[in-house]
Amino acid sequence: MGATSVVHIDDSVGNGPALIFDVNNKRDILAYYLDGTEVFAIMSDGFIRTTTGWAYRQIGVGIGDFAADGTNDDYTYPIFRAKHDVTIISAHVACDSAVALNATNYQHIYLEQSGNSNDIGTISTKATAFVKHVPREITIGTTNDQDHLAAGDTLQLRTLAVAAGVAMYGMTVTICYTIDQPNKTIGTATDNVMRFINEIGTAAQFKCDFASRPFMSIRESGNERLHIDITGKMHGAIAAGMNFYACADQYYYQTINTGQLVTADSATKISPLFAPHCTIQLENVYFGAITTYARDSNTNGWLLSITDTSTSLVEAYTHLYGSGTDLVKGQLYDMGDINREWGRLTSSDKLCVEYLEAGTGPTTNGLTFTLCYRKVT
Amino acid sequence: MADETPCYNFVNPPGTGPIIRVDNGAGNARDLLDFQASSTEVFSVSTAGLPDPGGGDAKRTVLCSYGDLPADADLIEPLVHEFEKSVTITNVYITCDTDTATADGGNTQTFTLNRGADSNEICSWATSADPGLTQNTWQSLGAISDETIAADDYVYGTITKAGSGLIVSGLIYRVEYTLL
Prior knowledge:
Oligomer: heterodimer
Radius of gyration of chain B: 23 Å
Structural class of chain B: mainly beta
Helix content of chain A: under 10%
Strand content of chain B: over 45%
Largest interface: A-B, 118 and 95 residues
Structural class of chain A: mainly beta
Number of helices of chain A: 0
Number of strands of chain B: 14
Shape of chain B: elongated
CATH architecture of the domain at 59-179 in chain B: Sandwich
CATH topology of the domain at 252-375 in chain A: Jelly Rolls
Order of helices and strands of chain B: EEEEEEEEEEEEEE
Number of helices of chain B: 0
């Protein structure tokens, strides 16, 4: 009995999922407790609730150099935007060169969001010295819900030079966040159909071994929400070969600061954005800059084209009247619908942005992109 | 959904709590789930509650868009990423937005990724071809060692020039990792 699983299914007859759960009241599907504390659960919408590293997502962004004279005070740096509500867990900043403490001349750094005026956290070289490459933590506030970033809002970074300020070079920011569970947990934890408590054995509680059939399908009122296929890959709903539903935690994000855009870059500069390790479906591209640019009244602007080096997936104008958008500093804007077929990128594809000037495109500082995608394979 | 022949089929069973609840004591080290394809594990949930799925779900990526790098960058050491939880680094790449100048004449850059806790080298790669770095081409930093990064530890870059070095425009680091 030593290695026996509680439920063990080998090579069962059938082609559909071995385990099917279909509920209409949003109850949890599976909850796992370790020493009395829940550490893993799957909800009926497919969301995985866990205390492990699985729940923690990471974003890294290069900010660049800060002048001592307060030039950068006018900038607001966009860091991140998500399709769903998220909670900021931690934030760290570092420089590529040392910055000494100075109680008179220093830089104050604010982590903020577009959704409300509360600081998420702050750090200052008045109280914190920087050693090259060593991250300094920005303590995240929680009392006014400032750690909560709503879907569509932008996480931002801003600086303020005090007195003569101090120069800071090669700043990078790392953010850790969790994706908020879309639905509330309902019911009583002990109201179960099956419950296993300290069952005898050392093998996994549930073990399945098949040659081809899917392992699990979770549904709400007959509509599939999570599917685990024979490769162990998790998917949203699968119908006719297309994923048409995915829970909030099936989406992943990357942010890239491509730096300054000048006339000489037109049709020349190609900024890399991402190269996936598996096939992905690009869902959204958000863009913004660190300074505000109003719509131009005539035809001076930039065409941003997100491509896989051969095909344009989505395009947006930065400044053009009528078809462009005001570009408010620190704010990330959705570039629009992505061609579904071309938006599927394999592990050999490269995503990049190309630039084409219309008229005289203004010099654009700190052009930043956030990518949102799902993993397909 | 006809003819699916599931082994277990729970359709609106009475109740509001989790359909299945599993309790392990603190000393019980057994996994929760173990899904195998022809006797090879492809999806599991560990005793700690950590999923280990298959396909692309198993690996994650973080970027660091550092920006422009001067040719004489020897003293620059950028933070590439700080990790909240323990991870295993699996691959590291760099790229740029413009071809670097010719690497002829012994002007090169060596890019190294280091672990914060002990400064051990994780991977390293030196430009040698011409161009040293090609626009929008992701260059692997090579074989990985000292790949385990503890919770709250970080990785950072060092850059060492030979000759006059190389200017790199729009340098981006891409780090792939799995969860521990």
